[in-house]
Specification:
The structure is a single chain. The chain has about 230 residues and is α+β, with helices and mostly antiparallel strands. Helix content is about 45%, strand content about 10%. It has a single domain, classed as Protein of unknown function DUF1054 (BirA Bifunctional Protein, domain 2). It is built from 10 helices and 4 strands. Strand 2 (about 105-110) and strand 3 form a beta hairpin. Helix 5 (about 140-150) packs across helix 6 (about 150-160). The chain starts with 7 loop residues before the first helix and ends in a 5-residue tail after the last helix.
């Protein structure tokens, strides 16, 4: 039988946390976090590992409590104006094994948040050298980029690439290039919105895997641009 990992109670907890984002409240509700959020998320990561390996043996599903695919709930507030201590969403990142410790690595990302859940894939805010490598790959083989980022199966699942972009063409690239808007990208990826009903369905793992598989062409292009196996 299909397993149901996430329940409406997870979203209720996240809503409550957004209304009571302080250490005293979280400590008093630690057991709720463990049972409704962390344990279901780790079970999801554990169970998706095998199917994800079949998509690519270079993608990592790491179910460790600390340092694995599940982002920690604590926020890094050292340089932030917002000093609230906890994230009010669940973040799960299936990264490329060669860069598994890097949040800017190519991978698949699952974001669970009340009224703002989504699945995303690609490169988020990569360092300048990686961004330049992807832009060079796009400029050198525009047909391959179009197939990867705008092919039918990908477009049916994700629409079009999304994310932040430069306001001006990047240095070293022709401003008149037909793909200049893609060359201006800071993020190289795409996402799809998820409803709470979809996330809490007993068939969510399979549905999420379908989304992952649809994103393979773009992931393969990005990995090739970075000299990573896929």
């Amino acid at each position: 039988m299909a397993a149901r990992y996430f329940t409406p109670a997870l979203f209720e907890f996240l809503h409550d946390l957004s209304e009571n984002n302080d250490r005293a409240w979280f400590k008093a509700n630690q057991e709720r976090y463990e049972s409704l959020v962390r344990q279901p998320a780790l079970a999801f990561i554990e169970d998706i590992g095998g199917p994800l390996y079949k998509v690519s043996r270079h993608l990592v599903a790491d179910p460790r409590k600390v340092g694995g695919s599940l982002f920690r709930v604590q926020r890094d507030t050292r340089f932030a104006r917002d000093k609230t201590p906890y994230k009010t969403h669940v973040g799960i990142h299936f990264r490329h094994v060669a860069t598994r410790e890097d949040v800017h690595a190519p991978g698949f990302y699952l974001h669970l948040e009340p009224r703002n859940s989504h699945a995303w894939l690609g490169l988020w805010h990569p360092p300048a050298d990686r961004a330049d490598a992807v832009r060079r790959a796009i400029a050198d083989d525009p047909a391959a980029w179009r197939r990867a980022a705008y092919g039918k199966r990908f477009a049916d699942a994700y629409g079009a690439p999304t994310g932040d972009s430069l306001t001006r063409p990047p240095r070293g690239f022709d401003p008149a290039h037909p793909l200049i808007e893609d060359l201006k990208r800071i993020d190289f990826g795409a996402g799809v919105r998820l409803t709470q009903a979809e996330v809490t369905s007993a068939h969510f793992l399979d549905a999420y895997l379908d989304t992952v598989r649809a994103g393979v062409p773009l992931m393969r292009f990005l990995c090739r641009a970075l000299d990573l196996a896929f």
